[in-house]
Design goal:
The structure holds 2 protein chains of 2 kinds. By secondary structure, chain A is mostly helical. Chain A has one domain. Chain A is 79% helix and 2% strand. Chain A has a two-stranded antiparallel sheet. A two-stranded antiparallel ribbon of chain A has the order 2-3. In chain A, strand 2 and strand 3 form a beta hairpin. The longest helix of chain A is centred in the first third of the chain and has 27 residues. The radius of gyration of chain A is 21 Å and the shape is globular. The two termini of chain A are 31 Å apart. Chain B is mainly alpha-helical. Chain B has one domain: ABC transporter involved in vitamin B12 uptake, BtuC (Orthogonal Bundle). Helices cover 76% and strands 3% of the residues of chain B. Chain B contains 11 helices and 2 strands; from the N terminus they run ααααββααααααα. A two-stranded antiparallel sheet of chain B has the order 1-2. In chain B, helix 1 crosses helix 9, helix 3 packs antiparallel against helix 4 and helix 9 crosses helix 10. Classes of the chains: A mainly alpha, B mainly alpha. Chains A and B meet through helix 6, helix 7, helix 14 and helix 16 of A and helix 4, helix 9 and helix 11 of B.
């Protein structure tokens, strides 16, 4: 399928989903759906670096939180224009602020991408393990930084009150849901494009044998940086609408370890070699967690995710997609013979 | 006055560094010598803290004594984990990506399980010497820091002696360099690696007891040690125990000075900064081979 057709199909599915939810008319569906969609974006983003290049990023929560706090930052700036800006700037700034959410998403993507670039440049020249460790530590340090930065709320947290109604979409959560759908389309299309381009082939050589790739002239460092930036930017974009979704942000919720765990577990469980894997994993695990949170408890559902991750990594290294492929190959052989 | 503050910050840092040495010892063995990136190690340290806590609350035994009694249990746990790791990843030759995810899963499962059992409240032990302090002139030595630091240094010294003097210790050092040569000496590298990994997990029992003497513990406390522990390990040079000790003392002092003069909430950022700097400038560490 060509890319424009692919986008068209995705958009049709997204629109169908939106109108189906709208038809049911229950706001909770939108709230729960938003979380699942957010995980699809995170898992797909993680997989661009982790699955295609084989570089593990434990800092998804950090990149996500960069997006969250970019929104909080500009929101706070928008509220204090009179005190922050010199007088002649107040009038034009009041025209610009408050920034619309789509622009905030782009800004968040840019900031998160830049952080990814900086970190990648420092650590990607070494063995993959060092990059993984650095991303782990990155979350802790960013959290330290945010806790100490009172402008965006510090450890107290910050309130971001969403408007009640939005034109066209009606209730605000429906607007957020539609935005997240758009982000999902963007993430999936990006992942699929990368997979089928020269870039994806380059990524695969890095994953399979980096030394050999380097020796045959693949610009490994540059490719790895591209992957880190794209992946980080998508994670940041996924985080940008979060303050409006939840209304009150504090470091502990924005940097929650469950984002890091889920964005690793979902591709691993779904399968890391293609864009389908993270999608399947996120849909399954995300929905399961929404159900488990309501019926059991949120701590137990995190335990389930952790155990599933360990289980799949040991038993089914190629994830659900791999299992299905094996099963299809087997049944094809049987029909032939 | 300012000078007294600095001296005391340095002393507190040295004692903190002694404790960090115990925390890093396990990683220095597993990551430095065996090339197993055990990021779940801090999780096992917290597990050690909670074992010390639960026995201490019920029977009033000293946490360090509890940790020593728990050593065989942790050793066994280490053996089991290594066996799973070897069978599922090392043997198949795909240990990097999935092995990392495996240990990350272990870290997470440990933390969430502790959360479910003990809740998210801070827990602390009750030991008679926790409040006391020894002072020499203007220098203050709080006993709750001094005891873990001293025991940790003894343990670390023992590890260094074990690695350099005994046959198994030397075999561990050899397995990281040339497992095939080891096989020619009729030594099973897998067995040596299992022993070494089990020892590394066993150190978590001690480090856990030290941690809960020094400060109250919550299940998620392990996370802030990940960056620190790997920073120390890399800074000290992978696989070098004496280097690790010196790096641990250095990070302890730098963190202590930072929190004395700039506020304790900045301390976690110090080790990360140093880690990035080391990786960027000299990835083999200060005392690297």
């Amino acid at each position: 399928m060509r890319t424009p057709a692919f986008i068209l199909v995705l958009t049709a599915v997204a629109a169908a989903l939106y109108f189906a939810f709208n038809y049911v008319g229950n706001d909770y569906l939108f709230f729960a759906g938003y979380t699942v969609l957010q995980y699809i974006v995170l898992a797909t983003a993680w997989n661009i670096l982790g699955g295609y290049c084989g570089y593990v990023n434990f800092g998804s929560a950090g990149f996500f939180a960069i997006g969250v706090y970019t929104t909080v930052f500009f929101h706070t700036v928008g509220q204090q224009i009179d005190t922050l800006m010199p007088e002649f700037l107040v009038a034009p700034m009041q025209l610009i602020f408050p920034l619309p959410l789509p622009i905030l998403i782009v800004l968040a993507g840019a900031v998160a991408g830049l952080v990814g670039l900086g970190m990648g440049y420092l650590t990607l020249r070494l063995r993959g393990v060092f990059f993984a460790i650095a991303t782990l530590a990155l979350t802790v340090v960013l959290e330290t930084f945010i806790v100490n930065w009172s402008f965006v709320g510090g450890s107290r947290g910050a309130y971001v009150i969403p408007p009640n109604e939005v034109p066209i979409f009606g209730h605000f959560i429906q607007f957020l849901f539609a935005l997240m759908l758009a982000l999902v389309i963007l993430a999936l299309t990006t992942a699929r494009l990368i997979e089928r381009s020269k870039l994806g082939v380059g990524f695969a050589t890095i994953r399979d044998d980096e030394l050999a790739a380097e020796a045959s002239g693949v610009p490994t460092l540059r490719l790895k940086l591209v992957a880190t930036v794209v992946s980080g930017a998508l994670m940041g974009m996924a985080g940008a609408p979060f303050p409006f979704y939840i209304g009150y942000v504090e470091p502990a919720s924005a940097f929650n370890l469950s984002y890091a765990v889920n964005s690793i577990a979902m591709p691993m469980i779904g399968g890391t070699t293609s864009w389908v894997g993270p999608l399947v994993g996120a849909l399954l695990l995300g929905t399961l967690q929404q159900v488990a949170t309501v019926t059991i408890s949120s701590a137990v559902n995190l335990l389930i995710v952790g155990l599933l991750l360990i289980f799949f990594v040991i038993i089914a290294p190629r994830g659900i997609v791999g299992l299905v492929q094996d099963w299809m190959r087997k049944s094809r052989k049987e029909t032939k013979s | 006055m300012e000078f007294d503050l600095l001296i005391n910050a340095i002393i507190a840092g040295l004692m903190l560094g002694g404790f960090y040495a115990a925390v890093t010892a396990g990683i220095s063995i597993s990551f430095g010598m065996l090339d197993i990136v055990n990021i779940a190690h801090p999780g096992f340290i917290i597990l050690g803290s909670y074992i010390a806590y639960i026995v201490n609350v019920h029977f009033g035994v000293d946490p360090i004594l509890i940790a020593i009694v728990a050593l065989p249990g942790f050793y066994l746990l280490g053996s089991v984990i290594y066996q799973v790791y070897y069978q599922s990843f090392e043997k198949r030759g795909q240990d990097s990506l999935r092995g990392l995810a495996f240990f990350f899963g272990l870290l997470f499962v440990t933390e969430v399980s502790l959360n479910l059992v003990f809740g998210v409240d801070y827990r602390s032990v009750d030991v008679p010497y926790i409040g006391g302090s020894v002072s020499i002139g203007a220098m203050e030595f709080p006993v709750r820091m001094l005891v873990p630091c001293l025991v940790s240094l003894v343990m670390f010294g023992g590890l260094i002696l074990f690695m350099s003097r005994t046959f198994i210790g030397r075999a561990v050092m050899a397995v990281s360099q040339d497992p095939q040569a080891l096989q020619l000496m009729a030594v099973d590298p897998i067995r040596i690696k299992r022993i070494a990994f089990s020892i590394s997990i066993a150190t978590a029992s001690m480090a856990g007891a030290f941690l809960i003497i020094i400060q109250p513990v919550i299940p998620s406390a392990g996370r802030e040690y990940i960056g620190r522990v790997f920073a120390i390990c890399v800074l000290g040079g992978l696989g070098s125990l004496p280097g690790t000790l010196i790096a641990a003392l250095m990070i302890g002092v730098i963190e202590s000075i930072t929190s004395t003069f700039y506020g304790p909430s900045w301390a976690p950022a110090v080790s990360f900064g140093l880690l990035l700097l080391t990786l960027a400038v000299r990835p083999s560490g200060i005392f690297g081979r």
